[in-house]
Amino acid sequence: MIAKIQELLEEVEKLKASNLEEVEALRIKYLSKKGSLNALMADFRNVPAEMKKEVGMKLNDLKAKAQEKIAALKEAVDTQDCGTGELDLTRTAYPVSLGTRHPLTIVKNEIVDIFSRLGFTLAEGPEIEDDWHVYSSMNFADDHPARDMQDTFFVEARPDIVLRSHTSSVQARVMESQQPPIRVICPGRVYRNEAISARAHCFFHQVEGLYIDKNVSFTDLKQVLLLFAQEMFGKDTKIRLRPSYFPFTEPSAEMDISCNICGGEGCSFCKHTGWVEILGCGMVDPAVLEANGIDSSVYTGYAFGMGIERITNLKYQVKDLRMFSENDTRFLEEFKSAN
To answer: Could you tell me which residue ranges the Aminoacyl-transfer RNA synthetases class-II family profile domain spans (predicted)?
Structure first.
């Protein structure tokens, strides 16, 4: 056995290869499952007990040297000059710089992480949706302005098919496919027919949340949103809820946070009010529960929704919404430290 190991070791030390195919052939010959080394390993069980330690050490040494030799041959082949003089002008010049996550992805992941720690699971749905899931199941009246061509992108050949204008459609799909308790967040891209400017775009990103169970109250909603705001913007962040209206919630509210720039003292960013609006929320309207097959006499729930661009603007003070979709690497590189 020792003689076989020594013979194979001398053979390995003399190995040569001129291209990657030959290197691969050597690897298969010596290091594969059916290679020479594995054959020796299989014979190891026949070695007398008093010689196992010595033979085992020599086998390990042989394996290490074979791996080093073949790795060295591969590196030599990879780096050698083939002498053809060819130059690939399409190849990225060195050094290749490392990229970074997009700021919207950074903030979305942070939002998802916060709510996942509060027990919410992730739910996603299609961006091309039907009218039922986007509007009718969410208690939108037939003449609601959101159905107008000035707000929603409709598919001309199929007027009942739209580019979703909010991720509430994902909530509808969750509700129709399972019974409470339901606790989900729904991130995704949405589309609205708006003029592109520094403050608006025809597409943006949302995260919506839904919680349905027995005895869910507005107090539960307020506490969850307070915890979210303090996790996202700092433990000293305060919130306030202002009455509002949404077709799918009743009662409804807009939520403001104390300005994280001036600390609530008042500045140009918060228009000297000390408060900045970040999301809409409310208790799920019983009509929405019933439309999606959930008994409103047994279950209650709350929902909320926020724009990821809005949250990103607040965290990083990006003044122009268009910068998020222009793919200017100078802008994206500013967020390397945020990863």
So the answer is: 107-334
